[in-house]
TrEMBL record:
It comes from the Bacteria. This is Iron-sulfur cluster-binding protein. Residues 452-472 are annotated as: Disordered. The lineage of its organism: Bacteria, Pseudomonadati, Pseudomonadota, Gammaproteobacteria, Oceanospirillales. GO terms for molecular function: 4 iron, 4 sulfur cluster binding; metal ion binding. It holds the Pfam family Fer4_8. Residues 301-331 form the 4Fe-4S ferredoxin-type domain. Keywords: 4Fe-4S, Electron transport, Iron, Iron-sulfur, Metal-binding, Repeat, Transport. GO terms for biological process: lactate metabolic process. It comes from Amphritea balenae.
Length: 472
């Protein structure tokens, strides 16, 4: 996937002008947050589960090497193979080599953000292997030559008429805007793909060290067909997905479904524990797990380690006012929203990804709904500081901060300036109580009105309160 993060502002501007996109994003605002709130209200112990999930993830990160080695040993004991990939290039080459060993011409794929991260589809196509996305949202995007804009609802930026047009163009069937008809059409087309595939590729929501198992959670069942029908099953996942035991896994499943879609539990929760054994009625003959690092191990032991707790539920972006206004594609790479604003600079560099941690109001909603309590605003602030220290911030930002620092170190000047600025903004606002246009603040006032200052400055109010407190 092409990296367009440096053009966040331009892409966000276009997104806010796109009426079809805004209509689609309206469905997000009215959907996931409300369903999550209802699901959480039905579980009195949800807050305690969040604490347990946070603590367990912290424990895993402190012992990551131990649990990964235990997981590898169990996979091998079960008859599978584990491959370690430090980079995207390593991962792609490993997967292609396995496909070549099986003389694979087509592979079916379940939804996997890690395969988006490493650019697997393009790589396979360039090397003569045709990947077929089987998740309905991902399949629609593949037909359109598009990319996901959300990590659990990849086609959330599309409307029903977009889907109908894509199916009509590629399936050569009568155009329909009936969701049931479109769903049946997708089933019929994909059924042959499932049967013909030489290799099936899935991601993994979690990897269980105790048993060497991987699990995928879906609502469509396509993942089951992807990993059981082909001769070879390849799991592509990242190193932080490991958990110690099956019991630990169930803790995260309870957090994940409620945080992601507002469900008590996802429809399909499918464990894979190696290739087909004697007596099994179905399953692959070969089982491979590709563990992708891609910069994650460099986060262990640093301030960014908290980000490795992420279970990819999308709650942060579902509640983010910025994501809700501009959509996922504005972020310009695989991971959008608050979690992407932290993870992307780590993977592609702050030089390219610096726009993203600045695309936040720091309202704190993302942290308040995160099922494992990741301090996302704090981590975005880390990247802002890193960007500033490397002199990568825009000149206007640097000069603005330098000017503020100059005044802040000189209390008399600071008080004088704030009084003057307050008076000026009141006069500018007039009787409307709002500022519609203001020099040097066009980034705000072009899109919304700025509330006019009311009353006295903070320092004036503080001084009065201190005086009042000193009186007998």
């Amino acid at each position: 996937m092409q990296i367009n993060t440096p053009f966040f502002k331009e892409r966000a501007h276009d997104a806010m002008e796109d009426k079809n996109l805004q209509r689609a994003l309206g469905n997000l605002k009215a959907g996931f947050p409300e369903k999550r709130a209802i699901a959480v209200s039905r579980m009195p112990e949800f807050e305690e589960l969040r604490n347990q999930g946070r603590d367990l993830k912290n424990h895993v990160m402190e012992n990551l090497d131990l649990y990964l080695e235990q997981f590898e040993a169990k996979v091998i004991e079960n008859g599978g193979h584990v491959h370690w990939a430090r980079t995207s290039e390593d991962a792609n080459k490993i997967i292609l080599d396995i496909c070549k060993q099986e003389n694979a011409k087509t592979v079916t794929k379940g939804k996997s953000m890690v395969t988006e991260e490493i650019g697997l589809n393009d790589y396979l196509e360039q090397n003569g292997v045709q990947p077929v996305e089987t998740d309905l949202g991902e399949y629609i995007l593949q037909l359109r030559g598009d990319h996901p804009s959300h990590i659990i609802a990849p086609a959330i930026h599309l409307n029903l008429d977009d889907v109908a047009e894509a199916f009509h163009e590629h399936h050569k069937r009568p155009k329909s805007d009936d969701p049931a008809v479109l769903m049946q059409e997708a089933r019929e087309v994909l059924r042959d793909k499932f049967v013909a595939a030489d290799v099936g590729i899935t991601g993994a929501n979690f990897c269980v060290a105790e048993t060497g198992s991987t699990i995928i959670v879906t609502n469509e069942g396509n993942g089951d067909l992807t990993q059981t029908l082909p001769k070879t099953h390849i799991v592509v996942t990242s190193i932080e997905k490991v958990v110690p035991t099956l019991e630990d896994m169930t803790l995260f499943l309870r957090l994940l479904a409620r945080s992601a879609t507002g469900q008590e539990f996802t429809v399909y929760n499918t464990l894979s524990s190696g290739p087909r054994r004697e007596g099994d009625q179905d399953g692959p003959e070969n089982f491979h797990v590709v563990l992708v690092d891609n910069g994650r191990s460099e986060m262990v032991g640093t301030e960014l380690q908290d980000m490795l707790r992420c279970i990819r539920c999308s709650a942060c972006m579902n509640h983010c006012p910025v994501y809700g206004a501009v959509g996922g594609h504005s972020y310009g790479w695989v991971y959008p929203g608050p979690m992407g604003s932290v993870l992307t600079p780590q993977m592609i560099g702050i030089e390219k990804g610096g726009m993203l941690p600045n695309a936040s109001t720091f309202c704190g909603k993302c942290e308040s709904v995160c099922p494992v309590k990741i301090p996302l605003p704090k981590l975005m602030r880390h990247w802002r500081e890193d960007e500033f220290e490397k002199h990568l911030s825009p000149k206007a930002v640097r000069y603005g901060i330098a000017g503020w620092a100059f005044l802040a170190k000189r209390p008399v000047l600071y008080k004088t300036y704030t009084r003057m600025a307050t008076w000026f903004m009141k006069r500018w606002a007039g009787k409307k109580g709002k500022i519609e246009k203001m020099p040097l603040a066009g980034g705000w006032t072009d899109w919304r009105d700025m509330p006019a200052p009311q009353g006295k400055t903070f320092m004036q109010s503080w001084k009065e309160q201190q005086k009042a407190g000193e009186q007998p």
